[in-house]
Design brief:
CATH superfamily of the largest domain: Intergrase catalytic core
CATH topology of the largest domain: hpI Integrase, Chain A
Order of helices and strands: HHHEEHHHHHHHH
Number of helices: 11
Shape: globular
Largest sheet: 2 strands, antiparallel
Strand content: under 5%
Strand order of the largest sheet: 1-2
Length: 210
């Protein structure tokens, strides 16, 4: 029952492992019952991040709290000792049987996959990188790009779908820049590319999206 609640919370929250294991009862169930949403401060960035809890996750949390009789102020997921929270090492060992049960290779996925999966689904369905960045609480868009493993082709496909124009105006080509600007363009400016991100990341950080 603990593992089901842990799996669902990790999926919905999209939190890093260090933040998942540090959750307390009050973070997700103030008053003893699971809330519709929660806000926590991330350890890595120090920034608050809000996440929604789905109905199945709320049910799993309520069932878990009822069986374990956890109280306000206690850690939500404990390891060997009730007073301390589960360690990230203990947490890292849990996904292997879960992954195997759904027919995937446990060696190719890990706890970071739980963080990436929902974010990847949201990005695939919306193409809204900024929205995913906000949901993950990332301070830099590059961090979101790295986590999602966005390819250059993906970025270009999204860019092609965006038609920028002023309201009420027909689609006209932009006027050519002044000659001096054309001559100096590209000099002294820092160029950013998604190419270095291609293929980065270890196997354990893959999402569970097939």
């Amino acid at each position: 029952m603990r593992d089901l609640a842990l799996f669902n919370v990790a999926m919905d929250s999209k939190l890093r492992g260090c933040d998942v294991v540090a959750l307390k009862v009050d973070d997700v169930a103030p008053g003893g019952y699971a809330a519709d949403s929660a806000t926590i401060q991330q350890k890595t960035t120090g920034r608050p991040v809000k996440f929604e809890l789905t109905e199945s996750t709320r049910q799993a949390i309520d069932d878990y709290l009822r069986v374990t009789d956890k109280k306000s102020g206690e850690y939500l997921f404990t390891g060997g000792r009730r007073t301390g929270h589960m360690t990230t090492r203990q947490y890292a060992r849990l996904p292997s049987p879960w992954i195997a049960d759904i027919g995937l290779d446990p060696h190719l996925f890990g706890t970071h996959s739980l963080c990436r999966t929902k974010a990847t689904l949201i990005y695939r369905r919306t193409g809204n990188l900024r929205a995913v960045q906000l949901l993950l609480g990332h301070t830099k868009i590059e961090s979101t790009v790295r986590l999602l493993r966005i390819e250059v082709d993906d970025a270009l496909a999204i860019a092609e779908q965006v038609d920028v124009r002023l309201r009420g105006q027909s689609r006209r080509p932009l006027p050519s820049p002044p000659r001096r600007l054309r001559a100096t363009a590209g000099h002294g400016t820092k160029q950013h590319s998604l190419n270095p991100l291609h293929g980065q990341g270890n196997a354990a950080s893959r999402s569970l999206v097939i």
